[in-house]
Amino acid sequence: MRKSLTLLAAAAVLSTAGIAQGADYAIDPTHTFATFEIGHFGASVNRARFDKKEGTISFDKAAKTGKADISIDITSVNSGTAAFDKHLQSPDIFNAAKFPKARFVSEKFVFNGDKVSEVVGQLTLLDKTMPVTLKANQFNCYESPMLKREVCGGDFEATIDRTAFGVNYGVDWGFPKSVRLVMQIEAVKQ
């Protein structure tokens, strides 16, 4: 009896050895973008993106778990207008000289079936950290025909209150406190 239990236990360990486990992914900077949108006097919407970003994702589809650590270089803000970029980097808004990086860290991925539906985490901006949930508009993993590796990614968005991070510029003039964040993220399996 003891021998059969030992054999059964050994068989169970060996049978789980082939089951897919989580993997690490590196952010693909050519397919990853962090952008923001904020209303401008109710007439239009100002938009800009950050051109430099890096990070890692740990993802286990079978266990439905994941982690993310994404850094954004605030000095790379790009609105398409040099004067506006300079103002965005100034102490009025992002204070890029003092706080050159923003960071999003998550230890909780929420799934709807096999797809990631939300990434719950903490955003650090201007040395203040607040909870932020990125909602997935779409998510997919695929075998890249060019890279010959798995790539996972999605289109995510969240709305934050910028004043919670100390970005108060223009509130007295009627600029909204709400800012829409849009994250297009693709990461390559390592």
TrEMBL record:
A Pfam family reported for this protein in Swiss-Prot or TrEMBL: YceI
Residue intervals of the Lipid/polyisoprenoid-binding YceI-like domain: 24-188
InterPro entries: Lipid/polyisoprenoid-bd_YceI, TTHA0802/YceI-like_sf
Alphabetical list of Gene3D superfamilies matching this protein: Lipid/polyisoprenoid-binding, YceI-like
Record key words, sorted: Signal
Signal peptide: 1-22
Keyword rRNA-binding: no
Stated name of the protein: Polyisoprenoid-binding protein
